[in-house]
Design a protein that fits this description.
Elements (H helix, E strand, L loop, with lengths): L1 E5 L5 H10 L4 E5 L13 E4 L25 E4 L1 H9 L4 E16 L19 E11 L6 E6 L7 E4 L4 E4 L11 H12 L8 H16 L5 E4 L4 H14 L3 E7 L7 H12 L4 E5 L1 H8 L5 H26 L11 E3 L4 H8 L24 E3 L7 H10 L4 H4 L19 H20 L8 E15 L2 E14 L7 E2 L4 H14 L3 E6 L13
Parallel strand pairs: 1-2, 1-3, 3-4, 4-9, 10-11, 10-13, 11-12, 13-14, 16-18
Antiparallel strand pairs: 5-6, 5-7, 7-8, 8-9, 15-16, 16-17
The structure holds xanthosine-5'-monophosphate (XMP).
The site of xanthosine-5'-monophosphate has 13 residues, from loops.
Organism: Heterodermia speciosa
Protein name: GMP synthase [glutamine-hydrolyzing]
Pathway: Purine metabolism; GMP biosynthesis; GMP from XMP (L-Gln route): step 1/1
Length: 524
């Protein structure tokens, strides 16, 4: 296992991601982590980049024990500067910020120790990605130069006796040619980590971990939505503890056409999961009556969800078969993924921006449940691989995300049964056409939204005054930025004509051509 100490760079999690691709297991912790408090011994340490200047008073520094720990170290960008700072304060502000591609020139040195050329072994000069303001103004003592760029005379350095390396460029971004090979050289050849992190191994270990954690009698409850993460987490729990896992689907009345029923069938008949479906439609719609302000709608939906889930959890707990004790359920399943874990553990200094989280906690506080998070080590694409391994269908594993507030934030303005009918039918047609055209997997998320306005149209021989549907389809990798999907005209024509003809109450269809930013993916 490798340890990544994070100084808060926007690229830090990519280091972990790239190492995973090499089947190398690693953990990322904040740069302030004290090594003496670690319960395990890393085989190598990577110091990440970060937005600070090492010479500033408020700059973060690692536990000095890092340099005495006896394992190889790789400093990247700020990590290089941190190393140079430790070995002689050899860092200054550069005259100009360097951002983008640079030509890396390799220097071969006659090694005093066998490790010195190992990081960039077998490489030619190459293009690398730089993003830094500070640079080294001299070599720290006992170090030699292994690479230069026109603007950074010490773009790569190595300690002459110890396996300590520093590089100014970012090997973790795809813009750096051979970047992955740099990490591979460090992990496999220098740290001698065995590349044995595979999904099969993950499943075996996770099932053992869940069984040990929950014990022979423990019971677990968890909300499911029919989405990838909650379904994969639920299936893993089912494999580990069978019917001692209780899944709950809260039907908030804001789901898509036939969605509650199809989730029920998939989870119970398809995956054998012990599922309770609660139809809370009335309750949600009553609470939402007359409300059109987006934030109020979200708050009401989130609040109702917690209440309904909590009541259901208490009921299931009281009725559950098990040893006689007050609450029979001890654990709450959460489908947390690694990016959220990284977000909560990564080092945040004064200037760091914090991502807003959409997901509602939903913890039944008075039940004293302990949290179990079987997906907390996985990235989204790994969850999909895991889902397939657990026998979940391709179509579910690749399902587009659907927000917790559901159609509630896709019907702009007040939510009524009539508006729900229109939104459901229009969305169903749009998604059906996307599937028929074989485009579903090319698009990251698509839906029909219902606008709170009426427009004039001519239908048959009459003038009508009816509602407007806005179609939205985006391509994205991280949902933080997104581009609208370039459908061809014939496709849009087909969808528009079907919606206007088949959905009563709609006389116009628009296609949203706003990217994110400045737009968001959802419309409310
Ligand atoms: P935005 O609209 O912020 O959406 O660009 C980014 C992603 O998050 C989803 N989203 C939500 N998911 N509860 C959720 O569970 C919410 O309140 C929520 N709002 C947005 C959205 O569908 C997209 O995938």
């Amino acid at each position: 296992t490798l340890l990544v100490l994070d100084f808060g760079s926007q690229y830090s999690h990519l280091i972990t991601r790239k190492l995973r691709d090499l089947n190398v297991y690693c953990e990322m912790l904040p740069c302030t982590q004290r090594l003496s408090e670690l319960a395990w011994k890393p085989q190598g340490i990577i110091l990440s980049g970060g937005p600070y200047s090492v010479y500033e008073d408020a700059a973060p520094h690692v536990d000095p024990a890092v340099f005495e720990f006896g394992v190889p170290i790789l400093g990247i960008c700020y990590g290089l500067q941190e190393m140079a700072w430790h070995y002689g304060k050899a860092v200054i502000a550069g005259e100009k910020r360097e951002y983008g591609h640079a030509n890396l020139h390799l220097e071969k040195i006659d090694g005093k120790a066998p490790h010195v050329n190992k990081l960039l072994e077998g490489f030619d000069d190459m293009q690398v990605w730089m993003s830094h303001g500070d640079k080294l103004d001299k070599l720290p003592s006992s170090f030699a130069t292994i690479a230069t760029t026109p603007n950074a005379p010490f773009a790569g350095i190595v300690h002459e006796e110890k396996p300590f390396f520093g590089i100014q460029f970012h090997p973790e971004v795809t813009h750096t040619q051979m970047g992955k090979k740099v990490l591979e050289n460090f992990a496999l050849n220098i740290c001698k980590v065995r590349p044995n992190w595979t999904m099969a191994e993950f499943v075996d270990k996770e099932l053992i971990r869940i069984k040990a954690l929950v014990g022979d009698e423990g019971q677990v409850i968890g909300a499911v939505s029919g989405g990838v993460d909650s379904t994969v987490a639920a299936k893993l729990m089912k494999e580990a503890i069978g019917d001692r896992f209780h899944a709950v689907l809260v039907d908030n009345g804001l789901l898509r056409l036939n969605e509650a029923e199809s989730v029920r069938t998939t989870l119970t008949q398809g995956l054998g999961i012990n599922l309770t479906v609660v139809d809370a439609t009335e309750r949600f719609l009553t609470a939402l009556k007359g409300v059109s302000e987006p934030e109020s709608k979200r708050k009401i939906i989130g609040g109702q969800f917690i209440e309904v889930f909590q009541e259901t959890a208490l009921k299931i707990s009281a009725e559950a078969v098990g040893p006689p004790k007050a609450g029979k359920i001890d654990w709450l399943l959460q489908g947390t993924l690694y990016p959220d874990v990284i977000e909560s553990i990564s080092f945040k200094g004064p200037s760091a921006t914090i991502k807003t989280h959409h997901n509602v906690g939903g913890l039944p506080a008075n039940m004293n449940l302990k949290i179990i998070e079987p997906l907390r080590e996985l990235f989204k694409d790994e969850v999909r691989i895991l889902g397939t391994k657990l026998g979940i269908s391709e179509s579910l594993v690749w399902r587009h995300p659907f927000p917790g507030p559901g159609l509630g934030i896709r019907i702009l303005g007040e939510i009524t049964p009539q508006q729900l009918r229109i939104a459901r039918q229009a969305d169903h047609i749009f998604i059906q056409e996307i599937n028929d055209a074989g485009l579903y997997r090319n698009i990251s998320q698509a839906f029909a939204a219902l606008l709170p306005v009426k427009a004039v149209g001519v239908m048959g021989d009459k003038r009508v005054h009816e509602q407007v549907i806005a179609l939205r389809a985006v391509e994205t990798t991280d949902f933080m930025t997104a581009d609208w999907y370039p459908f061809d005209g014939a496709f849009l024509k087909r969808v528009s004509s079907r919606i206007v003809n088949e959905v009563e109450g709609v006389c116009r269809v628009l296609y949203d051509v706003t990217s994110k930013p400045p737009g968001t993916i959802e419309m409310e």
